[in-house]
Each structure stands twice: as structure tokens, then as C-alpha cells.
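Notebook entry, structure prediction.
Reason for the run: the old model in the group folder had no record of what sequence produced it. Starting over properly, with the input documented here first.
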Amino acid sequence: MQTTTTKTTSSSMLGWMTLLLIAIAGLFYVKWSPYYHKAFLAASNHAIGQSILMGTAASPPPASLDAALGYAMAYGKAIWQAMVLGLLLGSGVQALIPAHWVTRLLGKTGFASVAAGGLLSLPGMMCTCCAAPVVAGLRARQASPGASIAFWLGNTILNPAALVFMGFVLGWNWTFLRLALGLVMVFGLGYLANSLVTPEEASKADAQLVQINDDVSSTGMFARWMKILASMTVRLVPEYIVLILLLGATRAFLFPHIGPEIGNHLGWILAFAVAGTLFVIPTAGEVPIIQGMLALGLGVGPAGALLMTLPPISLPSLVMLSRSFKPRLLLIITSAVIGFGLLSGLLAIALGF
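New structure, fully documented this time:
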């Protein structure tokens, strides 16, 4: 018995060390180091590059295969490393550490797990689609819906690097608006998601956790990791690529010709809130997009809507997580993000941005 316990403890420690090594080394290479240097670029040039949506043009290219491939290539070049890291971490969470460790921190349905999920998201700084595999992994380990939602949204909307870039490029008033509304979005929607969990659903999650622990004891840790990694990749990546191509081809319909004619009318704010919620961008991609649109004369209302809707979710990330959350919850989150976009646009107008 003692030998078995010692072996289990050693396996757990090895799993934890492996997961932490991948997380720290991967995030340093993919996120922390590049963003540290980009912050100096933002401070000196007041820009971090051109808009991935349409470059310096006043409108995206017409819908076509070239438009689809062009956006997919540009987007893929920007995020592929983070996507690989997300898949490694999402599968590692399921295979390398005991399930009860995840549920102990993130499995409760109170606000404490939501706070933990939101705080854990801060070092990640991933785009919504790259964070999705990690969220899927957490949900497979019975992390609560609220904690998982807070982690998912917090990666983008509370991204410390994006907030810094925003301050240097757009102005610190935009940063403060994003941070104030972002805190409410991340922790408020997380708490709402947990409040919707019924006692029956909580009991079912506990029963599934027991089954997970039984399954874990029957196979090797690293073999199981590779199996889960392959399964996640085959399940998530093809549908992800198809949706990226679709959005790249049709972005001209989501974002029309940009100019002074798109002012602060409520209809335009709503239209841009919906478009921003559906569209997909790399991490901090909203900063040059908004900068470019404002330079072309876009009203601050639609720009404020994009501030809160472009980063947190997208059509691809919603599809990627359609098996991890109930459709009703994803619909609520989507509607709430659009609502935050409307509120942000109206506040930008009222505050004289």
C-alpha cells in the first residue's frame, strides 16, 4: 500500500512539474518576452503594427477565396505558436495532474472559484481561440462553468499587455474604460454562470469526477496525454480552420467601408458590437484595428463597441467550446458581450473620447 501511494505521489509531482514547465517556458517564449519588447515599441511609436482586418485601407477586401486565404495566413502566422501551447496545456490539464486538484481550486459554484479562474487567466494573455483548448481541458476536469468562463474571458479582456499597448496607442482613457468594464464582464459573467448551475448538475459533475479518477488510474500518464492531445487536435483544429477561412472571406460584410459616415448612431454601435463579437483576431489585435478606424473617421461609439467585443469571444471559439458548455450558457455569454459592447460605445460618447 505504501509503495502504491508513493508511486502515485511521484507521478503527481512529475505531472505537475511537466505542466508547469510547459506553461512557464511556453508563455515566456510565446507571450511574455515578445510583449515586453512590444510595450517599448508601443511607447515610442504609439503603434504596434497595422490592422490585421484591412491594413491601411478604408475597407476589407471583397469576399473571395483570396480574402479567405490572406486572412487565414496572416492570422495563423500570428497565433499558431499560442494555439500549439493552448493544446498542450488543455490536454495536459486532463492528463498530467489529478482531477481533484482542479476541482479543489475551480470546481465550486461560489464566487471564490470565479475569482481563482479570473486571476489564473492573467499570465496567459491568449486570444480567445488559443485559450479555448485550455478551457475545454478545465471543463473536462469538472472546473465549474463560472471559473472556466472567467478564465476564458480574462485571458483577453484583462490581458495586461493589451491594456498597456492600448494606453500608449489609443490613450489611457481607453485602457481605464476597458479595465473597468472588463472586471465586471469577467467576474460578473463568471458568477452568473455559476449561479445557473442546478443541484442536479452539481451532483452529476461529482459523479463524473469519480469516473475520471477511476479512468486515470488505469493508463499511463504520458500515453494518456498524447492520446488526449491528438483527440483535441483532431476535434478542434479542422472546424477552427474552416471558420477562420469563412470569417476572412466575409469580413467585408461584417465591417463595411470605414469613414466619418459611420458615426455614433445607436444602430452603428449595435452593428459593430455584433460584428466584433463574431469576428476573430489575434491577441491585442483590437488595438491597431481601432486605431486605424479612428484615423479614418469612425465614431467613438462604434470604436468603443469593438473595444469590448473583438477580444473576448468569437464564432470559432464559441464552436470550439460548444461541447464544454450548455448552448443556453453560450447564448447568454454572447448576448452579454454584445451588451457590454453597447455600453462601452455609449460610455465612450458620454465621456467625450
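Summary: Residues 2-45 form the longest helix (44 residues).
The old model has been moved to the deprecated folder.
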